[in-house]
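The authors assume throughout that readers already know how a fold can be written as C-alpha coordinates. For illustration, here is how one protein appears when written out as sequence plus C-alpha coordinates:
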Amino acid sequence: MSTKDIHVEEGAAMAIVRAESHTAGGGRRLALHSPVTGLPIGAVDVDDSAEVARVVTRARAAQPAWAARSVGERAVLLRGAIDVISARRAEIAETIRTETGKPMAEALGVEIVPACDFLNYWSRRARRDLRPHRQRLHGYLRPFKQLHIQYQPLGVVGVITPWNAPFVLTLNPVVQALLAGNTVVFKPSEVTPRSGEWVARVLHEAGVPEDVVQVLRGDGETGAALVDSEIDKVCFTGSVATGRRIASACAERFLPCTLELGGKDAMIVCADADLERAAAGAVYLSMFNTGQVCMSVERIYVIDSVADEFIDLVVRKASAVSCGPGDADMGPLFWDRQRDLVAEHVADAEATGAEILVGGSVVPGEGLYFQPTVIVGAHHGMRIVNEETFGPIATIVRVRDEDEAIRLANDSRYGLSGSVFTKDRARARRIAARLTTGSVVHNDAAVIYGVPEAPFGGRKDSGVGQVNGVHALRGYVHAQPVLIDRWQPKHESIWYPYTDKTIRDLDGLIRAFGNRLIRRLLS
Protein backbone atom coordinates (compact mmCIF):
# COMPACT_ATOMS: atom_id res chain seq x y z
CA MET A 1 0.00 0.00 0.00
CA SER A 2 1.44 3.38 -0.92
CA THR A 3 1.95 5.94 1.84
CA LYS A 4 -0.78 8.55 2.09
CA ASP A 5 -2.09 11.00 4.66
CA ILE A 6 -4.99 9.86 6.80
CA HIS A 7 -7.08 12.53 8.50
CA VAL A 8 -9.51 11.21 11.09
CA GLU A 9 -12.19 13.33 12.76
CA GLU A 10 -11.52 12.17 16.31
CA GLY A 11 -11.02 15.72 17.53
CA ALA A 12 -10.98 19.23 16.17
CA ALA A 13 -7.41 18.85 14.91
CA MET A 14 -4.44 16.53 15.05
CA ALA A 15 -0.80 15.99 14.08
CA ILE A 16 0.41 14.44 10.86
CA VAL A 17 -0.64 10.77 10.77
CA ARG A 18 0.38 8.68 7.80
CA ALA A 19 -0.51 5.11 6.86
CA GLU A 20 2.43 2.74 6.43
CA SER A 21 2.50 -0.62 4.71
CA HIS A 22 0.48 -3.43 6.20
CA THR A 23 2.08 -5.28 9.11
CA ALA A 24 3.26 -8.87 8.80
CA GLY A 25 -0.10 -10.00 10.19
CA GLY A 26 -2.01 -8.03 7.57
CA GLY A 27 -3.09 -5.20 9.87
CA ARG A 28 -2.71 -1.46 9.41
CA ARG A 29 0.03 0.68 10.90
CA LEU A 30 0.00 4.45 11.38
CA ALA A 31 3.22 6.47 11.42
CA LEU A 32 3.37 9.61 13.58
CA HIS A 33 5.36 12.75 12.83
CA SER A 34 6.30 15.51 15.23
CA PRO A 35 4.41 18.82 15.00
CA VAL A 36 7.66 20.49 16.13
CA THR A 37 10.09 19.11 13.54
CA GLY A 38 8.03 17.06 11.11
CA LEU A 39 10.29 14.07 11.85
CA PRO A 40 9.00 10.56 12.68
CA ILE A 41 8.22 9.95 16.36
CA GLY A 42 6.82 6.41 16.26
CA ALA A 43 4.14 4.17 14.83
CA VAL A 44 0.92 2.55 16.01
CA ASP A 45 -0.45 -0.84 14.97
CA VAL A 46 -4.19 -0.42 14.52
CA ASP A 47 -6.51 -2.68 16.52
CA ASP A 48 -9.20 -4.06 14.19
CA SER A 49 -12.80 -4.91 15.05
CA ALA A 50 -11.88 -8.49 16.00
CA GLU A 51 -9.35 -7.26 18.54
CA VAL A 52 -11.85 -4.72 19.86
CA ALA A 53 -14.35 -7.54 20.43
CA ARG A 54 -11.72 -9.62 22.25
CA VAL A 55 -10.78 -6.74 24.53
CA VAL A 56 -14.40 -5.98 25.36
CA THR A 57 -15.03 -9.65 26.12
CA ARG A 58 -12.16 -9.64 28.62
CA ALA A 59 -13.53 -6.46 30.18
CA ARG A 60 -16.97 -8.07 30.48
CA ALA A 61 -15.51 -11.11 32.22
CA ALA A 62 -13.55 -8.94 34.67
CA GLN A 63 -16.41 -6.62 35.57
CA PRO A 64 -18.30 -8.69 38.20
CA ALA A 65 -15.22 -9.16 40.39
CA TRP A 66 -14.34 -5.46 40.12
CA ALA A 67 -17.92 -4.45 40.97
CA ALA A 68 -17.91 -6.84 43.94
CA ARG A 69 -15.22 -4.72 45.60
CA SER A 70 -16.58 -1.91 47.74
CA VAL A 71 -16.38 1.66 46.49
CA GLY A 72 -13.86 2.27 49.25
CA GLU A 73 -11.59 -0.55 48.04
CA ARG A 74 -11.70 0.74 44.49
CA ALA A 75 -11.00 4.27 45.72
CA VAL A 76 -7.89 3.19 47.66
CA LEU A 77 -6.41 1.60 44.54
CA LEU A 78 -7.16 4.60 42.35
CA ARG A 79 -5.87 7.07 44.91
CA GLY A 80 -2.60 5.16 44.80
CA ALA A 81 -2.22 6.22 41.18
CA ILE A 82 -1.39 9.73 42.43
CA ASP A 83 1.86 8.37 43.87
CA VAL A 84 2.63 6.63 40.59
CA ILE A 85 2.05 9.82 38.60
CA SER A 86 4.19 11.80 41.01
CA ALA A 87 7.03 9.31 40.66
CA ARG A 88 6.71 9.07 36.86
CA ARG A 89 5.84 12.70 36.13
CA ALA A 90 9.02 13.41 34.15
CA GLU A 91 8.40 10.42 31.84
CA ILE A 92 4.74 11.29 31.38
CA ALA A 93 5.54 14.93 30.63
CA GLU A 94 8.22 13.95 28.12
CA THR A 95 5.82 11.66 26.27
CA ILE A 96 3.20 14.41 26.11
CA ARG A 97 5.75 16.91 24.86
CA THR A 98 7.09 14.53 22.21
CA GLU A 99 3.63 13.95 20.77
CA THR A 100 2.22 17.47 21.14
CA GLY A 101 5.13 19.91 21.35
CA LYS A 102 3.61 21.53 24.45
CA PRO A 103 5.84 23.69 26.64
CA MET A 104 6.75 22.00 29.93
CA ALA A 105 4.51 24.43 31.85
CA GLU A 106 1.49 23.15 29.90
CA ALA A 107 2.49 19.49 30.11
CA LEU A 108 2.57 19.89 33.88
CA GLY A 109 -0.14 22.51 34.45
CA VAL A 110 -2.73 21.42 31.88
CA GLU A 111 -2.20 17.67 32.15
CA ILE A 112 -0.49 16.32 35.26
CA VAL A 113 -1.59 18.69 38.03
CA PRO A 114 -5.33 18.41 37.25
CA ALA A 115 -4.99 14.65 36.73
CA CYS A 116 -3.71 14.28 40.30
CA ASP A 117 -6.45 16.58 41.56
CA PHE A 118 -9.18 14.59 39.77
CA LEU A 119 -7.84 11.33 41.21
CA ASN A 120 -7.80 12.78 44.70
CA TYR A 121 -11.26 14.34 44.42
CA TRP A 122 -13.15 11.45 42.85
CA SER A 123 -11.54 8.77 45.00
CA ARG A 124 -12.56 10.67 48.14
CA ARG A 125 -15.98 11.71 46.86
CA ALA A 126 -17.16 8.41 45.37
CA ARG A 127 -18.11 6.71 48.63
CA ARG A 128 -20.45 9.58 49.49
CA ASP A 129 -21.99 10.02 46.05
CA LEU A 130 -22.45 6.28 45.36
CA ARG A 131 -23.56 5.21 48.84
CA PRO A 132 -27.00 3.53 48.93
CA HIS A 133 -29.39 5.80 50.78
CA ARG A 134 -32.95 6.15 51.91
CA GLN A 135 -35.05 8.82 50.19
CA ARG A 136 -37.84 10.39 52.22
CA LEU A 137 -41.24 9.92 50.65
CA HIS A 138 -43.94 12.55 50.39
CA GLY A 139 -47.68 12.10 50.45
CA TYR A 140 -50.10 9.38 51.34
CA LEU A 141 -47.64 6.53 50.71
CA ARG A 142 -45.26 7.73 53.42
CA PRO A 143 -46.86 5.71 56.25
CA PHE A 144 -46.77 2.52 54.20
CA LYS A 145 -43.54 2.50 52.14
CA GLN A 146 -39.83 3.25 52.35
CA LEU A 147 -37.81 4.29 49.29
CA HIS A 148 -34.18 3.20 49.01
CA ILE A 149 -31.83 4.18 46.19
CA GLN A 150 -28.89 1.95 45.30
CA TYR A 151 -26.39 2.37 42.49
CA GLN A 152 -25.53 -0.41 40.06
CA PRO A 153 -22.56 -0.25 37.64
CA LEU A 154 -23.52 -0.15 33.97
CA GLY A 155 -20.97 -2.83 32.99
CA VAL A 156 -18.33 -2.03 30.36
CA VAL A 157 -17.73 1.61 29.44
CA GLY A 158 -16.07 2.70 26.20
CA VAL A 159 -14.09 5.96 26.37
CA ILE A 160 -12.75 7.78 23.29
CA THR A 161 -10.52 10.77 23.93
CA PRO A 162 -8.83 13.56 21.93
CA TRP A 163 -5.28 14.75 21.35
CA ASN A 164 -5.30 18.24 22.84
CA ALA A 165 -5.03 17.14 26.50
CA PRO A 166 -4.46 13.43 25.97
CA PHE A 167 -3.53 12.46 29.54
CA VAL A 168 -6.02 14.34 31.69
CA LEU A 169 -8.97 14.11 29.28
CA THR A 170 -8.50 10.33 29.28
CA LEU A 171 -7.87 9.89 32.98
CA ASN A 172 -10.88 11.89 34.23
CA PRO A 173 -13.70 9.80 32.66
CA VAL A 174 -11.79 6.53 33.10
CA VAL A 175 -11.40 7.11 36.84
CA GLN A 176 -15.08 8.03 37.27
CA ALA A 177 -16.22 4.90 35.44
CA LEU A 178 -13.86 2.65 37.42
CA LEU A 179 -14.92 4.06 40.78
CA ALA A 180 -18.54 3.37 39.83
CA GLY A 181 -17.70 -0.33 39.43
CA ASN A 182 -17.42 -0.55 35.66
CA THR A 183 -14.58 -1.92 33.62
CA VAL A 184 -13.23 0.42 30.95
CA VAL A 185 -11.94 0.08 27.41
CA PHE A 186 -10.54 3.35 26.12
CA LYS A 187 -9.07 4.56 22.85
CA PRO A 188 -6.85 7.63 22.93
CA SER A 189 -6.37 9.67 19.79
CA GLU A 190 -4.07 8.05 17.26
CA VAL A 191 -2.10 11.30 17.30
CA THR A 192 -1.19 11.04 20.99
CA PRO A 193 -1.42 7.28 21.66
CA ARG A 194 1.49 7.01 24.10
CA SER A 195 0.27 9.97 26.17
CA GLY A 196 -3.12 8.30 26.51
CA GLU A 197 -1.61 4.89 27.25
CA TRP A 198 0.03 6.35 30.35
CA VAL A 199 -3.41 6.32 32.00
CA ALA A 200 -3.58 2.52 31.79
CA ARG A 201 0.06 2.22 32.80
CA VAL A 202 -0.27 4.26 35.99
CA LEU A 203 -3.54 2.57 36.98
CA HIS A 204 -2.08 -0.90 36.46
CA GLU A 205 1.00 0.07 38.44
CA ALA A 206 -1.30 1.27 41.23
CA GLY A 207 -2.90 -2.18 41.36
CA VAL A 208 -5.94 -1.99 39.09
CA PRO A 209 -6.21 -5.40 37.33
CA GLU A 210 -5.18 -5.36 33.67
CA ASP A 211 -8.53 -6.50 32.26
CA VAL A 212 -10.38 -3.89 34.33
CA VAL A 213 -8.88 -1.03 32.31
CA GLN A 214 -7.61 -1.72 28.78
CA VAL A 215 -6.39 0.50 25.98
CA LEU A 216 -7.02 0.21 22.25
CA ARG A 217 -4.75 1.65 19.57
CA GLY A 218 -5.99 3.00 16.29
CA ASP A 219 -7.90 5.66 14.42
CA GLY A 220 -11.55 6.36 13.68
CA GLU A 221 -12.18 2.81 12.48
CA THR A 222 -11.10 1.45 15.85
CA GLY A 223 -13.24 4.02 17.63
CA ALA A 224 -16.27 3.07 15.52
CA ALA A 225 -15.68 -0.61 16.30
CA LEU A 226 -15.62 0.22 20.02
CA VAL A 227 -18.90 2.13 19.78
CA ASP A 228 -20.47 -0.80 17.89
CA SER A 229 -19.15 -3.41 20.34
CA GLU A 230 -21.00 -4.93 23.30
CA ILE A 231 -20.42 -2.05 25.70
CA ASP A 232 -22.87 -0.35 28.03
CA LYS A 233 -21.97 3.35 27.67
CA VAL A 234 -19.86 5.62 25.47
CA CYS A 235 -17.98 8.68 26.71
CA PHE A 236 -16.57 10.72 23.82
CA THR A 237 -14.60 13.96 23.70
CA GLY A 238 -13.94 15.37 20.24
CA SER A 239 -15.50 16.97 17.20
CA VAL A 240 -19.16 17.77 16.61
CA ALA A 241 -19.18 15.72 13.40
CA THR A 242 -17.91 12.56 15.09
CA GLY A 243 -20.13 13.21 18.10
CA ARG A 244 -23.21 13.21 15.85
CA ARG A 245 -22.24 9.86 14.37
CA ILE A 246 -21.68 8.39 17.81
CA ALA A 247 -25.00 9.77 19.06
CA SER A 248 -26.76 8.21 16.08
CA ALA A 249 -25.10 4.83 16.63
CA CYS A 250 -25.95 4.92 20.35
CA ALA A 251 -29.56 5.88 19.64
CA GLU A 252 -30.00 2.76 17.52
CA ARG A 253 -29.19 0.63 20.59
CA PHE A 254 -30.56 2.92 23.33
CA LEU A 255 -26.98 3.12 24.56
CA PRO A 256 -26.27 5.99 26.98
CA CYS A 257 -23.56 8.39 25.90
CA THR A 258 -21.79 11.49 27.15
CA LEU A 259 -20.51 13.80 24.42
CA GLU A 260 -18.17 16.71 25.16
CA LEU A 261 -17.77 18.45 21.81
CA GLY A 262 -16.57 21.72 20.31
CA GLY A 263 -16.90 25.29 21.50
CA LYS A 264 -16.80 28.90 20.36
CA ASP A 265 -16.64 30.45 23.79
CA ALA A 266 -17.41 34.13 24.24
CA MET A 267 -15.74 36.49 26.70
CA ILE A 268 -17.64 39.63 27.71
CA VAL A 269 -15.60 42.59 28.99
CA CYS A 270 -17.82 44.99 30.92
CA ALA A 271 -17.13 48.70 31.31
CA ASP A 272 -16.18 48.25 34.97
CA ALA A 273 -13.75 45.36 34.36
CA ASP A 274 -10.19 45.37 35.63
CA LEU A 275 -8.79 45.96 32.15
CA GLU A 276 -5.27 44.77 33.00
CA ARG A 277 -6.64 41.42 34.16
CA ALA A 278 -9.16 41.24 31.32
CA ALA A 279 -6.46 41.87 28.70
CA ALA A 280 -4.11 39.33 30.26
CA GLY A 281 -6.99 36.86 30.33
CA ALA A 282 -7.94 37.57 26.74
CA VAL A 283 -4.42 36.73 25.57
CA TYR A 284 -3.76 33.71 27.76
CA LEU A 285 -7.22 32.16 27.57
CA SER A 286 -7.31 32.38 23.78
CA MET A 287 -3.72 31.19 23.24
CA PHE A 288 -2.67 28.68 25.92
CA ASN A 289 -2.26 25.18 24.51
CA THR A 290 -1.93 27.11 21.21
CA GLY A 291 -5.65 27.85 21.41
CA GLN A 292 -6.38 24.14 21.08
CA VAL A 293 -8.85 23.95 23.97
CA CYS A 294 -12.59 23.41 23.60
CA MET A 295 -13.18 26.10 26.28
CA SER A 296 -10.66 28.49 24.70
CA VAL A 297 -11.84 32.09 24.38
CA GLU A 298 -12.63 32.44 20.66
CA ARG A 299 -14.80 35.58 20.69
CA ILE A 300 -14.23 38.69 22.83
CA TYR A 301 -17.02 41.27 23.16
CA VAL A 302 -15.83 44.50 24.79
CA ILE A 303 -17.98 47.49 25.71
CA ASP A 304 -17.11 50.37 23.38
CA SER A 305 -16.38 52.89 26.15
CA VAL A 306 -13.35 50.85 27.31
CA ALA A 307 -12.48 49.15 24.01
CA ASP A 308 -9.55 51.40 23.02
CA GLU A 309 -7.72 50.91 26.31
CA PHE A 310 -8.51 47.19 26.38
CA ILE A 311 -7.26 46.64 22.82
CA ASP A 312 -4.04 48.55 23.50
CA LEU A 313 -3.38 46.31 26.50
CA VAL A 314 -4.16 43.13 24.54
CA VAL A 315 -1.80 44.15 21.73
CA ARG A 316 1.01 44.82 24.17
CA LYS A 317 0.56 41.54 26.02
CA ALA A 318 0.10 39.42 22.88
CA SER A 319 3.21 40.93 21.30
CA ALA A 320 5.23 39.65 24.27
CA VAL A 321 4.14 36.00 23.86
CA SER A 322 7.01 33.87 22.60
CA CYS A 323 6.33 31.11 20.09
CA GLY A 324 8.57 28.23 19.05
CA PRO A 325 10.21 24.97 20.12
CA GLY A 326 11.62 24.31 23.56
CA ASP A 327 10.12 26.22 26.46
CA ALA A 328 8.65 29.18 24.62
CA ASP A 329 5.26 30.36 25.88
CA MET A 330 3.42 28.81 22.97
CA GLY A 331 3.96 25.54 21.13
CA PRO A 332 2.85 24.35 17.68
CA LEU A 333 -0.48 23.41 16.24
CA PHE A 334 -0.86 19.66 15.90
CA TRP A 335 -1.88 19.15 12.29
CA ASP A 336 -0.77 20.67 9.01
CA ARG A 337 -4.36 20.99 7.80
CA GLN A 338 -5.36 22.64 11.08
CA ARG A 339 -2.64 25.22 10.56
CA ASP A 340 -4.09 25.83 7.10
CA LEU A 341 -7.59 26.21 8.61
CA VAL A 342 -6.40 28.81 11.12
CA ALA A 343 -4.69 30.70 8.27
CA GLU A 344 -7.91 30.53 6.21
CA HIS A 345 -9.97 31.98 9.06
CA VAL A 346 -7.52 34.84 9.54
CA ALA A 347 -7.36 35.55 5.80
CA ASP A 348 -11.17 35.51 5.53
CA ALA A 349 -11.44 37.95 8.44
CA GLU A 350 -8.93 40.34 6.86
CA ALA A 351 -10.65 40.10 3.47
CA THR A 352 -14.05 40.91 4.97
CA GLY A 353 -13.03 43.99 6.93
CA ALA A 354 -11.14 42.93 10.05
CA GLU A 355 -7.75 44.36 10.99
CA ILE A 356 -4.82 42.26 12.18
CA LEU A 357 -2.95 44.09 14.92
CA VAL A 358 -0.56 41.30 15.97
CA GLY A 359 0.69 38.22 14.12
CA GLY A 360 -1.64 36.67 11.60
CA SER A 361 0.82 34.38 9.79
CA VAL A 362 2.28 30.91 9.72
CA VAL A 363 5.77 30.80 11.22
CA PRO A 364 8.22 29.66 8.51
CA GLY A 365 10.10 26.43 9.14
CA GLU A 366 9.48 22.74 9.79
CA GLY A 367 7.16 23.03 12.79
CA LEU A 368 3.42 23.69 12.71
CA TYR A 369 3.68 27.10 14.35
CA PHE A 370 1.28 30.01 13.95
CA GLN A 371 1.96 33.46 15.33
CA PRO A 372 0.03 34.72 18.37
CA THR A 373 -2.63 36.85 16.67
CA VAL A 374 -4.94 39.72 17.61
CA ILE A 375 -7.82 40.69 15.32
CA VAL A 376 -10.18 43.66 15.72
CA GLY A 377 -13.18 44.79 13.71
CA ALA A 378 -14.56 41.25 13.45
CA HIS A 379 -18.26 40.61 12.87
CA HIS A 380 -20.64 37.65 12.67
CA GLY A 381 -20.36 37.34 8.92
CA MET A 382 -16.80 36.03 9.33
CA ARG A 383 -15.74 32.41 9.65
CA ILE A 384 -13.46 33.34 12.53
CA VAL A 385 -16.53 34.37 14.54
CA ASN A 386 -18.90 31.59 13.45
CA GLU A 387 -16.69 28.49 13.16
CA GLU A 388 -14.44 26.85 15.73
CA THR A 389 -10.92 28.06 14.89
CA PHE A 390 -8.88 26.14 17.48
CA GLY A 391 -5.86 28.37 17.13
CA PRO A 392 -3.99 31.16 18.99
CA ILE A 393 -6.30 33.98 17.92
CA ALA A 394 -7.75 36.76 20.09
CA THR A 395 -10.75 38.00 18.06
CA ILE A 396 -12.20 41.25 19.43
CA VAL A 397 -15.64 42.73 18.68
CA ARG A 398 -16.76 46.15 19.96
CA VAL A 399 -20.32 46.34 21.32
CA ARG A 400 -22.53 49.21 22.49
CA ASP A 401 -23.55 47.72 25.82
CA GLU A 402 -24.01 44.50 27.77
CA ASP A 403 -27.30 43.70 26.05
CA GLU A 404 -25.59 43.63 22.65
CA ALA A 405 -22.72 41.58 24.07
CA ILE A 406 -25.17 38.98 25.43
CA ARG A 407 -27.13 38.85 22.18
CA LEU A 408 -23.98 38.29 20.10
CA ALA A 409 -22.51 35.80 22.58
CA ASN A 410 -25.69 33.71 22.22
CA ASP A 411 -25.60 34.02 18.42
CA SER A 412 -23.69 30.77 17.93
CA ARG A 413 -24.47 27.12 17.27
CA TYR A 414 -22.06 26.29 20.11
CA GLY A 415 -22.76 26.59 23.82
CA LEU A 416 -19.92 25.09 25.83
CA SER A 417 -18.78 27.82 28.20
CA GLY A 418 -18.33 31.56 28.50
CA SER A 419 -16.78 34.24 30.69
CA VAL A 420 -17.66 37.64 32.09
CA PHE A 421 -15.04 40.15 33.21
CA THR A 422 -16.44 42.68 35.69
CA LYS A 423 -15.69 43.89 39.22
CA ASP A 424 -19.34 43.35 40.15
CA ARG A 425 -20.09 39.74 41.14
CA ALA A 426 -23.85 40.34 41.02
CA ARG A 427 -23.53 41.68 37.46
CA ALA A 428 -21.53 38.59 36.49
CA ARG A 429 -24.31 36.34 37.76
CA ARG A 430 -27.03 38.39 36.03
CA ILE A 431 -25.21 38.19 32.70
CA ALA A 432 -24.48 34.50 33.18
CA ALA A 433 -28.19 33.80 33.68
CA ARG A 434 -28.86 35.22 30.19
CA LEU A 435 -26.14 33.25 28.39
CA THR A 436 -27.18 30.04 26.63
CA THR A 437 -24.08 28.13 27.52
CA GLY A 438 -23.10 25.14 29.64
CA SER A 439 -21.10 27.16 32.18
CA VAL A 440 -19.91 30.68 32.88
CA VAL A 441 -16.75 31.85 34.66
CA HIS A 442 -16.20 35.22 36.33
CA ASN A 443 -12.87 36.91 35.48
CA ASP A 444 -11.42 33.64 34.10
CA ALA A 445 -12.40 30.96 31.60
CA ALA A 446 -11.19 27.42 30.87
CA VAL A 447 -10.46 26.70 34.54
CA ILE A 448 -14.07 25.50 34.90
CA TYR A 449 -13.13 22.03 33.60
CA GLY A 450 -10.65 21.72 36.45
CA VAL A 451 -13.42 22.19 39.04
CA PRO A 452 -14.75 18.63 39.50
CA GLU A 453 -17.65 19.85 41.66
CA ALA A 454 -19.00 21.84 38.69
CA PRO A 455 -21.46 19.96 36.41
CA PHE A 456 -19.51 20.70 33.23
CA GLY A 457 -21.24 20.03 29.92
CA GLY A 458 -22.28 21.76 26.72
CA ARG A 459 -25.51 23.03 25.21
CA LYS A 460 -26.55 23.22 21.55
CA ASP A 461 -23.85 21.68 19.31
CA SER A 462 -21.36 21.53 22.19
CA GLY A 463 -22.52 18.20 23.51
CA VAL A 464 -24.80 16.06 25.64
CA GLY A 465 -24.44 15.22 29.32
CA GLN A 466 -21.95 16.32 31.94
CA VAL A 467 -18.36 15.23 32.48
CA ASN A 468 -17.92 16.61 36.01
CA GLY A 469 -20.13 17.09 39.06
CA VAL A 470 -22.10 14.45 40.93
CA HIS A 471 -24.24 13.75 37.86
CA ALA A 472 -21.12 12.82 35.89
CA LEU A 473 -20.07 10.19 38.42
CA ARG A 474 -23.64 8.90 38.71
CA GLY A 475 -23.81 8.84 34.92
CA TYR A 476 -21.75 5.63 35.11
CA VAL A 477 -24.31 3.83 37.27
CA HIS A 478 -27.97 2.94 37.18
CA ALA A 479 -29.82 4.52 40.11
CA GLN A 480 -32.13 1.68 41.14
CA PRO A 481 -35.07 2.64 43.37
CA VAL A 482 -36.26 -0.11 45.74
CA LEU A 483 -39.63 0.43 47.44
CA ILE A 484 -39.92 -1.46 50.75
CA ASP A 485 -43.06 -2.11 52.79
CA ARG A 486 -43.01 -0.43 56.19
CA TRP A 487 -45.83 -2.68 57.32
CA GLN A 488 -48.12 -5.03 55.49
CA PRO A 489 -51.88 -4.34 55.67
CA LYS A 490 -54.35 -7.19 55.49
CA HIS A 491 -56.14 -5.58 52.58
CA GLU A 492 -54.93 -3.07 49.96
CA SER A 493 -57.44 -0.30 49.39
CA ILE A 494 -56.95 -0.21 45.59
CA TRP A 495 -56.56 -3.88 44.74
CA TYR A 496 -59.31 -6.04 43.26
CA PRO A 497 -62.18 -6.31 43.69
CA TYR A 498 -63.27 -2.67 43.21
CA THR A 499 -66.18 -1.75 45.45
CA ASP A 500 -68.25 1.29 46.30
CA LYS A 501 -65.89 1.82 49.24
CA THR A 502 -62.94 1.97 46.81
CA ILE A 503 -64.62 4.84 44.98
CA ARG A 504 -65.53 6.65 48.23
CA ASP A 505 -61.97 6.36 49.56
CA LEU A 506 -60.43 7.69 46.34
CA ASP A 507 -62.95 10.51 46.12
CA GLY A 508 -62.21 11.43 49.73
CA LEU A 509 -58.50 11.50 49.02
CA ILE A 510 -59.03 13.88 46.10
CA ARG A 511 -61.21 16.16 48.27
CA ALA A 512 -58.51 16.11 50.96
CA PHE A 513 -56.09 17.68 48.49
CA GLY A 514 -58.35 20.72 48.52
CA ASN A 515 -57.42 21.37 52.14
CA ARG A 516 -54.26 23.51 52.33
CA LEU A 517 -53.18 22.02 55.66
CA ILE A 518 -53.43 18.48 54.31
CA ARG A 519 -51.56 19.50 51.16
CA ARG A 520 -48.71 20.78 53.34
CA LEU A 521 -48.71 17.58 55.37
CA LEU A 522 -48.56 15.47 52.21
CA SER A 523 -45.84 17.51 50.47
Confidence is low (pLDDT under 50) at residues 1-14. The first strand starts at residue 4 and ends at 5.
